[in-house]
Amino acid sequence: MNLTPPVFQQSAAVYDLLYGEKDSSSEAAWVSETLESHECKSGQLLEFGSGTGRHARLLAERGYFVTGVEPSVEMLQRAEPHPRVTFLQGDTSSALLTEEYDAALALFHVMSYHTSNLELHSFFRTASRHLKRGGLFGFDVWYSPAVSFLVPERRTLTKEDDQLRVTRKATPAEDVQQSRVDVHYAYTVELLSSGEVTRFEETHSMRHFTTSEIQLLAEIHGFTILDSREFLTGRQPSRDTWGVWFTLQKD
Ligand SMILES: C[S@@+](CC[C@H](N)C(=O)[O-])C[C@H]1O[C@@H](n2cnc3c(N)ncnc32)[C@H](O)[C@@H]1O
C-alpha cells in the first residue's frame, strides 16, 4: 500500500542544483558522529527518503553500508552508484526488507512529509520492523514552536549552473489545526543554451511536531528518545529552531 504519491517528480531534475550549497559532508559527519555517540560506529543503515543519494554516499565513505529507500523514480535515477550503497524504490509504509539494520535514518525533513497520523504510524512501524533490538532511529523534523514563532514566508530562490537557470517561488499556506504547512512551489526552468523555458508546479505538504508528539509516537511504537537537539549545532531546541533532530532507540 503506497500512502504517499511522490512529490519529487519534475523537481527531481533541479533538486541537486537548488540544494547544491547545502553542506552534505558536514551533515553526514554530524549524523555519523551522533550515531557513534550512541555506539553505532559501523554497520548497516537504512535511509528512508534517500533522494538523490547525497547522504548515503557520504555515510558509506565513513564506513557504513547503506540501503536507501526512495519513492520517486526521478530522484533515484539521479543517485550515483556506490559500492557500499544500495538504492531501492519504496516508501515508509510499504518497505519490507529481509535485513535487520543497526540504524534507520530520515534526513532533511523526510519525517515532515508524513502529514497524517496513519502515515506516521506506518513509518514508525516500518522503522521498528527493520531495526535490531537497541537499533537507532534518527530523523529531523520541522519544529512546531519555531513554525508558530518564525511563521513560514513567501520566498523566491534562484540558482544557476552552466546549463540551467531555475527560479522557485514558494507560497506557504498554514493549516493550524493539522500542524501542517502546504507549500506551493512554482518553478521556472530556463535552458541557457536555447532560452527555452519550462514551468511546473508542486505542492509539498509538511507537518511540524512538538517534542511531546514525538515522545507519544516513540512510546506507542516501542522506542525511547535518546536525544533531541538542533540539527547541526546540537543546541537545545528553541522557538528559533526550525529543524530539530531526534535520536530514538528501539526498546
Ligand atoms: C527534502 S527531500 C530529502 C532527500 C534526501 N534525504 C536529502 O537529504 O537530500 C525529501 C525526500 O523524502 C522523500 N519522501 C517523501 N515521502 C516519503 C515516504 N512516504 N517514504 C519515503 N520517502 C519519502 C521524497 O521523495 C524526497 O526524496
Mean pLDDT: 95
Please outline the major beta sheet.
11 strands, mixed
Structural class: alpha/beta
CATH class descriptor name of the largest domain: Alpha Beta
Label the CATH architecture of the largest domain.
3-Layer(aba) Sandwich
| Range of strand content | 35-45%
Count of distinct strands:
11
Q: What is the CATH homologous superfamily assignment of the largest domain?
A: Vaccinia Virus protein VP39
- Overall tally of structural domains: 2
Write the topology of this structure.
Layout: H1 12-18, H2 24-37, E1 43-48, H3 54-61, E2 64-70, H4 73-76, E3 85-89, E4 101-106, H5 117-129, E5 131-143, H6 144-150, E6 155-160, E7 164-175, E8 180-191, E9 197-209, H7 211-220, E10 223-230, E11 243-250
Helix pairs in contact: 2-3
S-adenosylmethionine binds at residues 4, 6, 8, 48-51, 54-55, 70-72, 75, 91-92, 107-110, 113.
